[in-house]
Write a structure and sequence with these properties.
single chain; about 100 residues; mainly alpha; glutaminyl-tRNA synthase (glutamine-hydrolyzing) activity; nucleotide-binding
Length: about 100
C-alpha cells in the first residue's frame, strides 16, 4: 500500500503533529514502508502460537489475592479531613 502526500498530511493533522511541507514526501515514504512491513507480517502463519509476555520464557510472579487494610490505617487516615472509628467520614448526601 502506498501513502500519498495528502494522506500523510491528514495523518499528521490527526496525530496533531506539525510537519513542514518539505518533510511530507519523506513522511509519506516512511508511512508506506510501515504499512508494507505490516502486510509482510500478516503473511506469517501464527495458528497455534501462544502470545508471549516476554522474549524469554518465564512465569509472572503472583501473590495471593487477599483483602487487607494495608497494615497502616492510621497513616492513610492521617490526611483525611474527617475520620471516625477508623473510617473516612463524609457528609450525608441522601436523606
Amino acid at each position: 500500500m502506498s501513502i500519498d502526500i495528502d494522506t500523510a498530511r491528514k495523518v499528521a493533522h490527526l496525530a496533531r503533529i506539525r510537519v513542514p511541507e518539505s518533510d511530507l514526501p519523506k513522511l509519506a515514504e516512511q508511512l508506506s514502508g510501515i504499512l508494507t512491513f505490516m502486510e509482510q507480517l500478516n503473511e506469517v502463519n501464527v495458528d497455534g502460537i501462544e502470545p508471549m509476555t516476554s522474549v524469554t520464557p518465564m512465569r509472572l510472579k503472583r501473590r495471593a489475592d487477599v483483602v487487607t487494610d494495608g497494615n497502616y490505617p492510621e497513616a492513610v487516615l492521617k490526611n483525611a479531613p474527617d475520620a471516625r472509628e477508623g473510617f473516612f467520614a463524609v457528609p450525608k448526601v441522601v436523606e
